Amino acid sequence: MLKKKFIILFATTFSGLFLNNFAEATVLNNSYKEVIDHVWQIVYRDFLDSSGKFQKSNWINLRKKVLSKTYSDSNEAYDAIRDMLSNLNDSYTRFLEPKEFNQMRIDTSGELTGVGIQIVKDKESDDLIIISPIEGTPAFDAGIKARDKILSIDDISTDGMNIEDAVKLIRGQRGSKVKLEILRGSKSFFKILSREKIELKSVSSKVNETKKGLLIGYVRIKQFNANASKETRDAIKDLETKKVAGYVLDLRSNPGGLLESSIDISRHFINKGVIVSTVSKDGLKETKKGNGQALTKKPLVVLVNEGSASASEIVSGAIKDNKRGKLIGKKTFGKGLVQSMRTLVDGSGLTVTVAKYLTPNGTDINKSGIIPDIEVKMNINPILQREIGTRKDKQYRAGEKELINIINRKNQISEFKPDTTNLNALLKVNMEDKVFLLN
To answer: CATH 2.30.42.10 residue ranges in the chain?
Structure first.
C-alpha cells in the first residue's frame, strides 16, 4: 500500500524498503543497468508532464541507448540517470544518491542539515533559485530571501550546475563555512554561512493583545514536517483555553512539507468542504475534504508571501476558496506539482512528478501562485526575528487589522435582533458589508 506524503517542497510517496549501509560491491553484482532501468520504468509508468513536451516514443528510444552501454561503477550509472532525466524538462523530477536520499528522509522528520535553504532549478533560465530560507537557520539569519538566485558556491559557478551537485557543495561538516554568491534583482553579493545541524520545531504560537484588549491567537508554521499537525493541534487547543477571539495563521517563508500534514492542518480550521484535489497523468482525480472535526470556527486570517510554497499553498488555497478566512501579504511561490518519492534497488532514490494539485475552486496555481485578498508588502527595513508576528511586522499588523474588522462585523451581526427596532445596528452592518465587498 502506498502512503502519500508531502516532503519539503512536494508531495511524495514512499514505496519499498530503505537500504542502509549500501555496499556497492555486493549489490546486484555490479548490475548498474538495473538501477537505470528502474528509474526509466518509474518515469514511463507514472511521470506527469507539466511542460507538454514529453514524448513516450523518445523515452522508449532513450532506454535502448542507455542500456546499450556498459557502466563500470555507480558514478557512471548515476550520471547516466541524471542525463536521462534532464530530457524531461522537469526540475522536480530528480535522482538522489543513497546518502542524499537518506538525508531527505531525515529532513521530513524535522531535522535539517546545512544552511537552511530549499532550492529549485528553473528550466527556462537554468538558474538555481532559492524557494525559501527556513526560519532560525544560518541562511535565514543572514538575510537570504525567497527567489534569490545562487550564482556561485565557494567561487564555483552554478552555470549549468544541477541541484544534486549544488547540494553537495552547500552541505558539509558542521561548523564549516560555505560562500554563496547571490543575485537579488540586478544586484549580486556574497554571503558566508556556517553549516549547522538544526532541530526544527515546526510550530510556534502566542497570544497577542490588541490596543483595545482583544486577544488574538498567533500561530506560525515554519514547515509541514511530521510533527507539524500535532504541534498545530496542541497550539490551537491551548489558545482556545485562553479565549482568543480569532487567529492569525502565519505561513510566510514556509517552503512546504508533508501532504498529509497540510491536509490535517487545513482540517483543524475547515470543518467541511474540499481542501485539495490531485489529478494524475491519467486524469484520475482524488479529493480530500474536511472531516467535520475542526478545532475552531473563530475568524481567521492567513499571512503569505513569495516564500509560501507547496503545502503552504494547499492550506492557503483551501482557506481562501472555502471563504474560511482572508489571505494577507504577497503572492505565493506557485508550486502546484506533486512528486512521488521512490526507493531504488540500490538504496538511492527518485522524486518524480506524478500529479498536479488543484485548490477547491479547481485552480491550478503552478507557476502562478495564489493572490492574497489584501496585498501588503513587507517592511522596507528588515525586522528582527523576535519582531515577527508583532506590530513591528507590517504584514502582521495588516492581518491583525483585518481580523479585528471581521470580528467586529461578526459581533455586529449577532447584536442585531430582527424582532426589535435596532435599525442602527442593521444599517451599520450593511454599510460595512458594502465596504468589505469593495475590498
So the answer is: 116-199
Q: Residue 121: which residues within 8 A CB-CB, separation 6 or more?
A: 91, 127, 128, 129, 162, 163
Based on its alpha-carbon atoms, the radius of gyration of the chain, rounded to whole angstroms, reads 24
Set 132, 229, 310, 340: catalytic member: 310
Residues 6+ apart with CB under 8 A from 75: none
**Predicted confidence band of residue 435 (pLDDT cuts 50, 70, 90):** very low
Alpha helix stretches (DSSP H) within 197-333: 228-241, 259-269, 311-321
Please choose, from the candidates 55, 5, 11, the residue with its C-alpha nearest in 3D space to the C-alpha of residue 354: 11
Cell of 115: 544552511
With 0-12 / 13-18 / 19 or more C-beta atoms within 10 angstroms meaning exposed / middle / buried, residue 159 is exposed
Active site residue 428: no
The band of 290, judged by pLDDT with boundaries at 50, 70 and 90, is very high
Rounded to 5 degrees, φ, ψ at 182 are: -115, 140
Domain at 203-336+357-403, CATH homologous superfamily: 2-enoyl-CoA Hydratase; Chain A, domain 1 (3.90.226.10)
- 120 falls in which pLDDT band (50, 70, 90)? confident
Is 321 among the catalytic positions? yes
pLDDT the model gives residue 1: 38
Write down the catalytic residue from 321, 330, 340, 346.
Answer: 321
How much helix, strand and coil, in percent to the nearest 5, is found in the chain? Answer: 35, 25, 40
Which pLDDT score, from 0 to 100, does residue 23 have? 38
Q: Which CATH class is domain 3-99?
A: alpha beta
Q: How far apart are CA 119 and CA 127, in angstroms?
A: 10
Judged against a pLDDT cut of 50, whether residue 98 lies above it is answered with: yes
Catalytic option among 335, 340, 348, 356: 335
Q: Among this protein's residues, is 165 annotated catalytic?
A: no
| Average pLDDT of the chain, as a whole number | 85
pTM of the model: 0.72
